[in-house]
């Protein structure tokens, strides 16, 4: 991280929660440049809890929502960035919730919160404030992650899912969004239209948009590796060419790939980038970076 000091930790939740939550991340960063940060579309639903200053979202992914500040918010699947004011320091927790696990973890369907940024208290009521108070009193990342485990287990309400939709989501994820929607529909035995309706109801977005987000996440990851040109990244991720990649980047990230590389990439933590091929097996050592 260019000029910033960071203290981060990433961990899987306890086994009971792993079908529903991808991972937890804790972050404490100082020395960030003043300005704004673009929260990009993701294949996870994000729960972000600030343990420092409230998080100010100055532009919502849904233009019908007004700018607002949050101590804890849930951001549903989206196709445009959320723009967050960056004041130099950040301290908090990031929970990556699988779209098919949203109802089990939060008690609402992923489709109900798609393209929305909601205060956690709008979903959990008083329990949201209780959770934040316990996290503020904790004195280590491990303690905070344990509090999250207990909170989610206490509210866990697994629901039955159509196995065909779970299969289609896994197939898209494994292929980084390069499977045609018609092929997915054929694999489930449904018509394309019926499959798309079932997928949207369960995931929160249409399969075509989910595929776009998976390709975009993969591109983010490959660009961060700095081993491929943008043209090579485009071909590797299933875009027609670099121009197609750039058009998608403008739509999903609000800027060109080159602008994103200059503005955002130097300050992103590894866990924030999409296209993860491997999930952490255990708590990574909390580390400090001076770059």
Summarize the structure in words.
By secondary structure, this protein is of the alpha+beta class. The radius of gyration is 18 Å and the shape is globular. The strands form two sheets. A seven-stranded antiparallel sheet has the order 10-7-4-9-2-1-11. It has helices at residues 102-106, 120-124, 126-137, 141-155, 163-174, 181-188, 192-203, 207-225, 230-236, 242-253, 257-263, and strands at residues 5-11, 21-30, 35-39, 45-50, 55-59, 68-70, 72-75, 82-86, 89-97, 117-119, 287-290.
Cα-atom radius of gyration = 18 Å
Low-confidence residue ranges: 277-291
Q: Topology as H/E string?
A: EEEEEEEEEHEHHHHHHHHHHE
Tell me the name of the CATH homologous superfamily of the largest domain. Answer: Jelly Rolls
Which features does this protein show?
four-stranded antiparallel sheet, seven-stranded antiparallel sheet, globular, alpha+beta, 11 strands, Jelly Rolls, 11 helices, 21% strand, Arc Repressor Mutant, subunit A, 291 residues, 2 domains, single chain
